[in-house]
Sequence to fold (285 residues):
Amino acid sequence: MDGTVGAGGHSWGILQASSPDGQLLGMDVDPQALELAGKKLAEFSGRWHLVQASYVTLRERLEELKWEKVDGVLLDLGLSSIQLDTASRGFSFQVEAPLDMRFDPEGEVSAADLVNQLGEAELADLLYRFGEERRARQVARAIVAARPITTTIQLARVVARTTRGGKRGIHPATRTFQALRIAVNGELEALEQVLPLTPEVLLPGGRLAVISFHSLEDRIVKQFMRSESRNCICPPGQPDCTCDHRASLRVLTAKPIRPQEEEVENNPRSRSARLRVAERIEEKT
Fold:
């Protein structure tokens, strides 16, 4: 199962490697992505099933296919190149576009809604929690003072005026745009919901592979894999185990795998990628 199929690059690799009989379920909430993925995977016709749905519904999607278990689950988190390169969708602070940022164009809340409707304190909390923006209060205050803000460039300029002197080479609005995008799409909540489902749908020996792009995502994945690789998750110092927890995964990456220099040169957007992998272990009775 590729839970974040995007334009189909990873799915193509999976189908190629599992030829001639491997089957793939590809999920994405973005209809534009699924359309492109369908074209990318055309040569493997009959071996893939693309569904517009969030990966949190993976069990329901597997039931529809009458699949009980799968050999692998892949989650490539965050923003896809399709979304970033489609200016009108409002993910980029480098081109003028409406403040949207919805993975699913039919989603209820846009970035413009949050920017223009949240109170200053709520907005500051959002920027700090999801963007790890150290100047969240100042940025929120500046945004509220500049309302209404309706375009990406408008917002980027407001933030840039407030956060001058950030890390070299990183646009001052990067953290603000990240925070808004995560909030609009409920990304961290969805990740926290889907991870506990993955051991249930993986066959013994099956792999869970998660690619994250910032510390908030990676921390959630790391903590989940660490917890699921232990037979006891009782608080440290407790004399007797009362949790009855049993390990379901074996962590295969002690540290996340990072892209090598050559890959970053060929694909600069991969520079912050972190891959963690775990293997489903046999249930012991």
The first strand starts at residue 24 and ends at 28. Residues 215-228 form the longest helix (14 residues). The domain at 99-185 is CATH 1.10.150.170 (DNA polymerase; domain 1).
